[in-house]
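[#protein-structures] MJ: dropping UPF0033 domain-containing protein here for a structure pass
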Amino acid sequence: MKSDKVLDATGLACPMPIVKTKKALDGLAAGQVLEIHATDKGAKSDLTAWSNAGGHQLLEAREDNGVFKFWIKKS
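AK: finished. structure tokens for UPF0033 domain-containing protein:
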């Protein structure tokens, strides 16, 4: 999936993946896509809930060799 920016949040524990995601999304324009890589097992539920609460669209979430990858489209 195409992304406009990639955020490496691997090795970070909650709540840092969310904090870094918010900061990275603030730097994007509406409609752009942020790709996030995280290793925190709670990131899937946290980023899904955070995206919904913020009105952003979680386009895809998957795990690849222990790394959770997310694509969020900024609203």
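MJ: nice. The chain has a mean pLDDT of 96.
AK: one more thing. The longest strand covers residues 57-64.
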